[in-house]
Amino acid sequence: MCTDLLSGMGRPAPAWSRWLSTSPRTDPERTRYNWRACAAGRGKRVNLTTRIAVIGVGNEFRHDDGVGWAVVAQLAEWAEERPLPSGTALLVCDGDPARLITLWEDADLAIVVDAAHAHPERPGRLHRLKVDDGQLSQTGTATSSHGLGLGNAVELARQLDRLPGQLVVYAVEGADSSLGTGLSAPVAAIVEPLTEWIATEISLHAGSTGSR
């Protein structure tokens, strides 16, 4: 299932907030961005005004499996001081293929951040993958830490003609996916630079399409 991060305002801070800086959390009354998640058991299609979707995939209660959520939360904080292009949606989801497709299908660019397993593993190592001709191309042996995996979601979306205009996946190798909160040190170390890279990728895409 997926959790709506904004609905937690006024409740105790969720686990992902402890991975970030101590700056104030984004106020949903002030934010210019569409930061939401698919609801439990059903997906909500990205609004037609959404041009760029950043989707953090994972489970915040399984240590490094929550890295995608941490990156999206960091990006939302940065957006208060470093505005993202209009039409940018910041989303989180559990990795269910049907819900992922619902979140990305109307976007010009979808960026997915997920935890990954690899053999041999090197926690904190980053893989950048992109979809070419409906196939998820990659180097190495990293795979999603979730059951069906992104490859299945991409293949299903291709068959249903529901892929975004461009799809990029950042997969972070994890060290610990056991029950518990907080990221391991090598995975936590990649959150800030990865957030920076994604912010740059969003800006470059918006610049190439004339978005502001």
UniProtKB/TrEMBL annotation:
Query: Which parts of the chain span the membrane according to its record?
Result: none
User: What are the record keywords, sorted?
Assistant: Aspartyl protease, Hydrolase, Protease
A GO molecular function assigned to this protein is: aspartic-type endopeptidase activity
GO BP? protein processing
Gene3D superfamilies hit by this protein? HybD-like (3.40.50.1450)
Superkingdom, natural source: Bacteria
Q: Which PANTHER family match?
A: HYDROGENASE 1 MATURATION PROTEASE (PTHR30302), HYDROGENASE 2 MATURATION PROTEASE (PTHR30302:SF1)
Question: What family does the entry list?
Answer: Belongs to the peptidase A31 family.
By what name is this protein known?
Hydrogenase maturation protease
